[in-house]
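Note to self: keep these together.
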Amino acid sequence: MDSEKRVLIVAYLFPPIGGIGVQRALKFAKYLGDHGWKPIVLTTSEAVSATMDEALMAEIPDDVEVVRVRDPIAKWMRRMMPRTQASHATTSDGATMATGRTSRLKRWLKRLKDKVLMPDEQVVWALRAALVGTHLIRQRNIACIFTTSSPVSAHLTGWLLKRWTRVPWIADFRDPWTDNMHFYGSGRRARLEGRMERWVMRDASAITTVTDGFALRFSQKYPYLSDKLTVIRNGVDPADFGPIQAAPSPGVFTMLYAGILYPKRSPEVFLKAVSQAIRSGRIHPDQIRIEFAGVFDYPGKASNRDLVERLHLDKVVRVLGYLSHDAVARRMANAHCLLLIGDQDSTASMYIPGKLYEYLYTRRPIFALLHQGEASSLIEHYQAGVVVSPQNVRDVEDALVDMVAHFRTYGPISGNQPLPVALTRPFQAGQLADVMEELTRAAHPWTIVGRVPRTRDSQQAGTATGGQ
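Structure:
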């Protein structure tokens, strides 16, 4: 419509890349049109990802323009990695030599990346995207810029576009930057990234983030953010699930984990608890199945698969691999219980795994290994399951035995409190539209609108109809 304002969404992670991190930008692109904003998405044409999901392309509305900018670094990595992986198909001695060469190459590439590509390997793409974005802003009469991280290089695109065009800019942080649990920069790198972070926080017209903990950390570090910081949480798109059905029929107690695992989010304690419960006879192996959908081990790694073998859990654990988002949603609805494994880090209390909102929406009981924090509070608030310390194998074993025993005695469990509408993607698109309206209503488009710092309280709205 002619009355629609246009927003440029800068998001490196966008379909056909998959994974939960893609959902935020995708759903904003899908639903901002319902709130008077026409999105134009600026993303990459090259992607190296373990979570590709072509099916998500169908969710992009036909009237949303997607402009893809070539990423020469990703294109080079794509050319290099298959070549090194293919070299493994030789004799055993040859495979060992190839593995050694690949490991040395990876170490060399990592050192090069850490020294040259800052803040991340997408920085070349970000600079190219800024040039393309400048033309789009002028040709399409863009009223607002929205950049979302990770990668944080997307915010450098926003920073340049703001300086070059004076169009209002919102920097959206799905995770912190230098306070991220995965940030290992030191020395020169840490100083440079700290400077970049200050540029973004100072010059962005507004800052959005996804948890109260992140917002608190930002405001403590940069007190001047108080008048331009808003929490818009992650959420769930009811359209991905349809009407929520009754609990699945009895049978083997089936648990599903959906998402990515890595060293700080390891299934080790949980799998050891399962093994211990089976060996002690507290759970019979025929009574339980545990499915992992997503990235169980990153390409070239096998630590989690090796652990399953060492614990003799081959008949209990099923590794499904990466599935489309639609397929995972169906499996969530058909599981008896949803497994959530949190991060092992001192800052874990301020993180909320994006998948948790989808778990809550399905109204299946959640078995969560979490430190106390925002994620555990959500589960407790909605009476959605069991939260266990992720450090004590015996505590996890006892809680699991109790849940399986309850299932065998009383049958499938269904029903936590319905999820509020405020935790759904369509509603959150409206929240973002409100922020953009405030910025563009200013007398000059680059002037920051002074406003009271706010948290978009998830309990101020009604209930998501699909969760009834």
